[in-house]
């Protein structure tokens, strides 16, 4: 039996997939939803297996309010806590034994998962047996790889949202396909450099969790972060952009965390740094482009 906590687009999509394999799976969220199998949080927490798909910046607060001891957790959230400057696995490990935590990531628009379209994902855990256990919950149209590189999968899932914002800006400024190809190639190198500092494996960034998720998220208006970039290039205010989206764009918050971690540890992250300056210092997008080309 498995519970999904978080009934946003991604949580609902994963639940719809799991429900095909596990008929008595349940789902919950802060607000009641008209979804078959919806239960309250206390009921959801009775199950041994828990999939968490809530906004990354809400994880810390959530964990202070629930008891997950003894539970097996699959984290579908992507991001870095921009107050504590901690990766989600670091935050979870304050409350749950590392051997009971896994992370799921990869190139996956929620809409296509709901439509049962072929999708490849990675489940990473320091306990590979746990990754395999969670893999069995998913139906065949989801190709699940398992890995032990939690740091790599986490960094890739978070960082690609920042590069997606940059890619949206590139598109919004009508810079052309050459420029976008260069941006994504250098963005992948930047992700890898950042991840390796924190112990991630290079191969992770060349696989579906890295390059795969980056290329998907940074090339489509189905991506919220990409749309943020498009609108920033048009000169719209960030507050207005986020209000129009109506959903969380994790890249906005992750940008701040990556920028501050990079300064703290002396990691060279030019693209993330320019995105930070555009979002948080109101730097003109054209001026950021000029500085990146120097």
Number of domains: 2
Q: How many distinct helices? A: 15
User: What's the CATH C level of the largest domain?
Assistant: Alpha Beta
Shape: globular
Helicity range of the residues? Answer: 40-55%
Number of strands: 9
Task: Please outline the helices and strands.
Blueprint: E1 2-5, H1 9-21, E2 26-28, H2 41-44, E3 49-52, H3 59-65, E4 72-75, E5 80-81, E6 86-87, H4 88-92, E7 101-105, H5 110-114, E8 119-124, H6 128-135, E9 142-147, H7 150-172, H8 177-197, H9 202-206, H10 208-217, H11 224-233, H12 238-245, H13 250-265, H14 270-280, H15 285-292
Parallel strand pairs: 1-2, 1-3, 3-4, 4-7, 8-9
Antiparallel strand pairs: 5-6, 7-8
Helix pairs in contact: 7-8, 7-10, 7-11, 7-13, 7-14, 11-12, 13-14, 14-15
Short recap of the structure:
The chain is an alpha/beta fold. The protein contains 15 helices and nine strands.
Explain this structure.
The chain has 294 residues and is an alpha/beta fold. It has 2 domains: 2-148, NAD(P)-binding Rossmann-like Domain (Rossmann fold); 151-292, N-(1-d-carboxylethyl)-l-norvaline Dehydrogenase, domain 2, CATH 1.10.1040.10. 52% of the residues lie in helices and 12% in strands. It is built from 15 helices and 9 strands. It has helices spanning 9-21, 41-44, 59-65, 88-92, 110-114, 128-135, 150-172, 177-197, 202-206, 208-217, 224-233, 238-245, 250-265, 270-280, 285-292, and strands spanning 2-5, 26-28, 49-52, 72-75, 80-81, 86-87, 101-105, 119-124, 142-147. It has a 7-stranded mixed β-sheet, with helices on both faces. α1 (9-21) links the parallel β1 and β2 (26-28). α7 (150-172) packs parallel to α10 and α7 crosses α14 (270-280). The longest helix is centred in the middle third of the chain and has 23 residues, at 150-172. The N and C termini lie far apart (55 Å). 50% of the residues are buried. The mean pLDDT is 96.
